[in-house]
């Protein structure tokens, strides 16, 4: 009988995070202050983020120790299993071997606690007592709520009002873990009150929620900081536990991936799985393809431009060098909420520009169909975000079948979909539509960027 699951023991867990900046041929460009257009300083960032996280954000060290307190909490669900998708292989009749790294086993149901735990820890160590953040569909809010309570921190999560009302279950997860979840726009911040004054029925946006969370942090510099669940370098760094485990597990399986695939929102689960494999390309001269998969409705990697842009819609963040559709781009309301982001992290953007990683975009009807096939063959109902990675893996497997050649495929199952069943309901009812923005639509928001820098 073939082995299905490859599991590490707790003692084999990585004790360091991997920082790919050390091995990049071209380092990412620095974030700039929007007013001065000069690189932002640590002092400027320290009003918003914990100091250790800023050091990691700017670090060029190859390996950074994972604090024991963080490793201890990782053990609740780590090491996560690497699974051979034998059922999916059989259904496809492919000669390809398909493996997936199962990050859906975390308490919050996604990869996000891998960074939520160290972010909470470093804030706690600095004497911070309150965290603020924003969340769209609620995955990040749930992850930080779970993590913060381990260190006795209070959390305020500003959740976009439409999601707050339409998607109560993650809000209830946050409440269960003891976090406060506030519908944004709220009346407790100036930015929220201003939005409500303009439009009392305002249903909110991610940009507005960020503004509220950052404002709260800036108003209480003595004990409050803000935190972010994707895009930034330190977030991507923390996620490399995924790929380091997977490198060891693929060795256990006696297999070497030809292609490593991750779905792409801001880049953290893609980079988390992909970078330890990309290191083998950079350091050992291997030739593993590292593929990011984004929705066709929000195609910053495949159709965006490489430019300095704001990380948020409101224009509060430093300017980041990124592949972007422009921060004013309004992605259509697809179900993979975690992938509806206008830009990409600056490390991934540089790697894509240098041709060291690949990108492709897929329509959501194809990805949800792939998610349903995966659920039927492997049992797990995947997060709508993760179905993008599954659909790309299936395309690779079918191509191998057509060519009659072997291929070893590894993808990241970034989360499960049990709280996103509405997406499946829509698909099964035949109500799901694909939307591909026109060139003119993208050109409109991209052209705005020339005004910034
Ligand atoms: C947030 C999220 C994503 C997208 O974020 P990345 O930073 O690109 O990984 C993907 N999958 C799941 C399950 C998520 O919760």
Automatic annotation (TrEMBL):
Record-annotated Tryptophan synthase beta chain-like PALP domain positions: 77-415
The protein's required cofactors: pyridoxal 5'-phosphate
Pathway(s) served: Amino-acid biosynthesis; L-tryptophan biosynthesis; L-tryptophan from chorismate: step 5/5
Domain of life, source organism: Bacteria
GO cellular component, one term: cytoplasm
Keywords: Amino-acid biosynthesis, Aromatic amino acid biosynthesis, Lyase, Pyridoxal phosphate, Tryptophan biosynthesis
InterPro entries according to UniProt: Trp_synth_b-like, Trp_synth_b_CS, Trp_synth_beta/beta-like, TrpB-like_PALP, TrpB-like_PALP_sf
SUPFAM superfamilies registered for this protein in UniProt: Tryptophan synthase beta subunit-like PLP-dependent enzymes
EC number: 4.2.1.20
In-chain residues carrying the UniProt-annotated modification N6-(pyridoxal phosphate)lysine: 112
Gene3D superfamilies to which the protein is assigned, alphabetical: 3.40.50.1100
Catalytic activity: (1S,2R)-1-C-(indol-3-yl)glycerol 3-phosphate + L-serine = D-glyceraldehyde 3-phosphate + L-tryptophan + H2O
Amino-acid biosynthesis in keyword set: yes
Any GO molecular function: pyridoxal phosphate binding
EC category: lyase
General function of this protein: The beta subunit is responsible for the synthesis of L-tryptophan from indole and L-serine.
Subunit structure: Tetramer of two alpha and two beta chains.
Family: Belongs to the TrpB family.
Listed name of the protein: Tryptophan synthase beta chain
Species assigned in the record: Alistipes onderdonkii
Organismal lineage: Bacteria, Pseudomonadati, Bacteroidota, Bacteroidia, Bacteroidales
